[in-house]
Amino acid sequence: MSLLPQRTDLDVVGAGLTVRLPGGDTVPFAHLDYAASAPCVRAAAEAVEGLLPWYGSVHRGAGIRSRRSTQEYERARDVIAGFVGARPGDTVVFTRNTTDALNLLARCLPADVTTIVFDGEHHANLLPWPAPLRLATPSSPDAAVETLERALRSLRGPALLAVTGASNVTGEIWPVRRLADLAHRYGARVVVDAAQLAPHSPVDLAELGADYLALSGHKLYAPFGAGVLAGRADWLDAAAPYLRGGGASASVGAAGDVTWSTGPARHEGGTPNLLGAVSLAAVCAALTRADRAALHDREQDLLARLRGGLTGVPGAAEVSLFGPAQPRVGIVSLALPGNDAAAVADRLADDHGIGVRAGQFCAHPLTRRLTGAAGVATCDASTAALLRVSFGLGTTGADIDRFVGALGALTSVGAGRQLVGARTGR
Ligand code: PLP
Question: Does 284 qualify as catalytic in the annotation?
Fold first, then answer.
């Protein structure tokens, strides 16, 4: 019997990466920036490696490579449809990422639909919508429901609620099901930005009560440039193609008259990202096979360890929208009064071999509000405001402990203040 640790589909590629510190020590790199881009897992890397010898054009050839590539691409779509619980009549469109997926849906909105968004959204779910009805960021799940109900009552025509599954800043899980049930009572549809929820928790369209769902492969351990929009086909089939060109067009007449494809092809103009789709499907399949409850418990243990450790770091205050008891995924953002978060992040990287992110995390209205509440100088677009720690598969207790220890050491001596010229945090 081998005493070597068993390799699994969900092992992180590059888990043993080490970095040399200025003092000469070499330490394992502690990657704590999963919310920006998660590392690749073996399932994704092996899916790519396995397919490369067969790589060929998708939907565009008769040769064996093309046939195999087409088959794998469509199989990937089916696997992802299963992963997100697509219902009969739903469609799965491959996109570049969540931003692309939400922009696609925004372009497909019937003209009379009003989109409703809370201000606390990531810019990807705030900016694509034409003239949205913007609601103040709520301070509790109940307040979110009440605010939405007031908005829905005030509207006359059809509506779409665009809401995040989990905040990319605080990690807090939004009350999606309650909001969706309410929206549906008023005849509105719901799109869930699952960019941060999907890497941590099962995402099922029916269970969430969502009409559409968007996610990114690079946050879901498959960093090969694919994302997904899944959901009801009717608006997508009725809208103009997202990208006009080959694949999106079924036929083009001599006079330039075009019959556009329906189904996913309508919005997947040009040669698709086969490796992105296949690697994403491989991770979805691996997660489906995995014990998600055990993964969840492990992540929650790490979260408790982090938050417990941070209570001993007086210079760091966790920010939150709904309060400390709100369920959350493995993301924590900290206000560091008196310290420059970007400078602290640089010192963590340079002196300790720890990778985190500082800034506003493409959620400016939300971070402005959170930093104001935390008593930190309110950020403008050019300064970093918060320090974010995020983690998932492959993260160890030692990674968390090293971060807590290093942060405590840096903030106690005000190390972040000594550096000038903080990097811009988008
Ligand atoms: N939505 C949320 C909640 C996010 O955190 C992000 C990225 O951080 C996005 C959308 C946009 O994702 P992408 O950059 O992959 O398009």
Answer: no
String of DSSP letters for 177-245: HHHHHHHHHTT-EEEEE-TTTTTTS---HHHHT-SEEEEEGGGTT--SS-EEEEEEHHHHHHSPPSS-S
pLDDT digits (tens, 9 = 90+) for 400-416: 999 999 999 999 876 55
Pocket test for ligand 1, best of 37, 118, 219 (most atoms within 8 A of CB): 219
Confidence (pLDDT) at 417: 55
Flag whether pLDDT at 377 surpasses 60: no
Same domain, 188 and 304: no
Tell me: pLDDT of 45 over 70. yes
> What is the per-residue DSSP string for 385-403?
-EEEEE--TT--HHHHHHH
pLDDT value of residue 22: 85
Whether residue 371 has its Cβ less than 6 Å from ligand 1? no
**Domain limits at 189?**
44-289
Residue 12 lies in a domain: no
Which residue, among 258, 196, 272, 215, has the nearest Cα to 86 in the 3D structure? 215
Q: Is 168 in the pocket of ligand 1 (CB under 6 A)?
A: yes
Q: Are both 296 and 351 inside the same structural domain?
A: yes
319 in Cβ contact with 371 (< 8 Å): yes
91 lines ligand 1 (CB under 6 A): no
Closest C-alpha to ligand 1, atom 8: 36
For the stretch 109-127, pLDDT in tens is: 999 999 999 999 999 999 9
Checking if the pLDDT of 97 tops 60, the result is: yes
pLDDT level of residue 244 (50, 70, 90 thresholds): very high
Residue 32 maps to a domain: yes
The finding on whether 97 has its CB within 6 A of some atom of ligand 1 is: yes
